[in-house]
Structures are given as structure tokens and as C-alpha cells.
Amino acid sequence: MSAARADRARALSGAVSASQNLSSRLAPLSRLGGAGLLSLPLFLFFVIPVAALLWRTSGAAVWASLAQPEALQAIWLSLRTTTVAAALTVLFGTPLAYLLGRQKFPGSQAVDTLVELPTVLPPAVAGVALLVAFGRQGLIGSWLAPAGITLAFTTAAVVLAQVFVAGPLYVKTLAVGFAALDRELEQAAAIDGASRWQVFRHVALPLALPAALSGIVLTWARALGEFGATILFAGNFPGRTQTMPLAVYIGFETNFDVALALSAILIAVSFLVLILVKLVLQRESAS
User: Fold this and answer.
1) What is the chain's pLDDT, residue by residue, as a tens digit (287 residues)?
2) Which residue segment(s) compose the domain that 116 sits in?
């Protein structure tokens, strides 16, 4: 009897210890109240798939998969096209962002809505729209074809798809940065004899630089993950139009290890991009 009582006592002591341990781990959530507990299911739903993918991917498998030619081609093509897409977006998107952020004109709301539209379009719709605009029989492509210029199903089509889908992120982010500037600073520079270009270059642009950097990073990351519009407008040709997301799609059917490795790389890049943007925004708010 004494041995049985001792076993029950140890079991009860272990249960109490486990309960205390669980309570201590859940203490931060309990301090958040009901909102903390109610937020846990959706938070876990966001985290578990990413954690499961990373758990299935080992470092050795990543390096082995990256040694394969199709993976290296997809990575190199993605880096080239996203960099070009980001550069084109900065070149042509900065004036548009300044216009939307600093100028009020008839139809400005319509222009702003049209700029945002590609970010909410279904990817398939974006791809079809690019195809009917820049394909050989498209609205603009039919004028380019007689001159020997073909855009669809080329590397240029990959860049165009990335700019179309990701470019609005830069424009909107920078437009918000421009809109937050104190107009008195620009007026003071103009009173001192600065031209509009000088006001933009020496006053507005330096002050909006944190927003510009955030927009560039977000645009580059979104372009890196672009899939739907690319596969419809540019196709899926290794070495020419097959970017990392397309290689993941093909690898899911042909080589799952390559798909896992490229997926892990995209997750890591996306995580680092988000951290970088948050750091930039924190520095901006602190200053």
C-alpha cells in the first residue's frame, strides 16, 4: 500500500510540476488576455507551414540541389531580372510617385487607383492582360512585330511581368513618403532661388529616401516571388524565362528536393527583406 501511495504521490507531483511549467510558458499570453489566446490559432496557422517546409529541408540537401544546373539557372535568371525590374521601377516610378504624393490634379484619384490595380489583380488576369497588350497579336505587340521586336515568351517578358506586378509597391510607398514632407521646406528652397528640379533633388528626394529604400526592397522581393503573370506571359523555358518560383513549380513534379531547396531560399530572402524594411522604418520613425 505504501508503495502505491508513493507512486500516486510522485504522479501527482509530476502533474503539478507539468501544470506549473505550462502555466509559466503561457503566462505571456495570459497577460494579453482573451485577445492573446484567440490570436494563437491564426498565428500558428501562419507559422506552421513555413516551419514544416524548413524542417523538411536540410542544409546538405539545399547545397546538393543548388549544384544542379536547373536550380542555378533559375537563381541567376531571377537575380538578373529582379534587379533590372527594380531599376526600371525606380527610374520611371519615382516621377510618378512624386506626382501622386505632391501634386493634386483632376483625376488624381483615378490615376492613383489605376497604379494600385495590378497589386490586387489575380495573377492569371495580369498575365493575360500583358499578353494581349504586348504579345505578337497584342495592342502594342502588333506594332512592334514588324520591326522584329518580340516581347512575349522572352526574358524581357519576365522583367515586364515583374514590373507590372511589383512596381506599384515602390510607387505607393514612395508617394506616401513624398506626401508626408513639409511643404514649407520646398517653399523655402524655392524662395531662395532653387528650380523645381533642384527642390526635388536636394530637398524632397533626400527626405523621402527611407521610403524609397523600403519601396525598392519590397518591389525586389515581390518581383522575386512573381509566378502567375510570368508563366502566362513569358512561359517556362529553362535558362530563358524559368525563374525560381517557376522552377519550384516544375520541381514539385520532377525533383521535389530542388523545389524544397528553392522554396527555403525564397522564404529566407523574404524574411530578411521584411526585417530590413522594418529596420528602415524604425530608423525613420526614431529620427
Assistant:
1) 455 555 455 545 554 455 555 455 555 655 666 776 788 889 889 999 989 888 888 777 777 777 778 888 998 999 999 999 999 999 999 999 999 998 888 888 999 999 999 999 999 999 999 999 999 888 998 999 888 899 999 999 999 999 999 999 999 999 999 998 888 887 888 887 888 888 888 888 888 988 999 899 999 999 999 999 999 999 999 889 999 999 888 888 887 888 888 888 888 888 888 888 788 777 766 66
2) 61-286
For residue 162, what is the domain's CATH number? 1.10.3720.10
Which residue is it, cell 505632391?
A: 102
* Statement to judge: residues 68 and 151 lie in one domain: yes
**Shared-domain flag, residues 107 and 39:** no
Contact 81, 243 (CB under 8 A): yes
Q: Are residues 206 and 184 in the same domain?
A: yes
> Distance of CA 44 to CAs 18, 29, 41, 80, 278, Å?
22, 14, 5, 35, 22
105 lies in the same domain as 212: yes
User: Which amino acid makes up residue 199?
Assistant: V
